[in-house]
């Protein structure tokens, strides 16, 4: 298998000849009436806008692996790949799929086992039955679904990555704040984003092609409450426990402009919101900082509304020394 340059490492004027994944593609019309392809192509290092000025080339499907030859240019100060030739990858082509699509850093089975073991340790049998039922209903999609289409944890098995990381953080926080109900918080962490599986259309490599009608019209918070309510009635879960879980799902975005009609109104709901925000932001920051030079800044990040600074070096000692 021959090496190929990573998109994030390419500089203006460098030739690219290798394989990329299609994240988005459409045919557009230029000001002079000619057709061209406007695409978003990616590998494990990131994504780039790409243009192919041959209007006769068919629009490639989302999630298709394509062989690309072109040159890295700049447009409005941002990288842009000019594609001269491209074709769908063939069975005999030698490429590494793991180098093309972002994946969670841990095996899906390992992350799912951690979640299931935490639920199995619940002493509240009604809570355990409810969470296990929701996990079982999600089925195999849990092993590959991302947590978002473009922002945090937009990677294969990103939903498991996001959930398992939050679950570890929740356990640590409960040791510091022993008044928290650890099982209720853990259940909220596991349940809060499960309906992203019905909110987005994703394939088995973890790429989202579009939002579903349910996702556009209802969203994963409201849909999550509806699914919890249904399961709670089927299992005859005590009303207060079910209501608190529903509130945690409904309030975990905190503000109406982010989709939550109610703010968190008890401690476990507040911690769930904070953990969700923290995990999302750390993920996005780490991803963006990989593309910045030490001692320099990232581009302005839309989701965070700021640039980030990448420190030149890390101290040799441990944190706090």
Write structural notes for this entry.
It is a single chain. This protein is an alpha+beta fold. The protein folds into two domains: 7-99, OB fold (Dihydrolipoamide Acetyltransferase, E2P) (Beta Barrel), CATH 2.40.50.140; 108-284, Hypothetical protein af1432, CATH 1.10.3210. 36% of the residues lie in helices and 19% in strands. It has nine helices and seven strands; from the N terminus they run βββββαααααββαααα. The strands form two sheets. The protein has a five-stranded mixed barrel with strand order 1-2-3-5-4. It has a two-stranded antiparallel ribbon with strand order 6-7. A hairpin with a 2-residue loop joins β2 (35-43) and β3. α3 crosses α9, α4 crosses α9 and α8 runs parallel beside α9. The longest helix is centred in the last third of the chain and has 23 residues, at 267-289. The protein is elongated. The N and C termini lie far apart (45 Å). The model has no long low-confidence stretch (mean pLDDT 91).
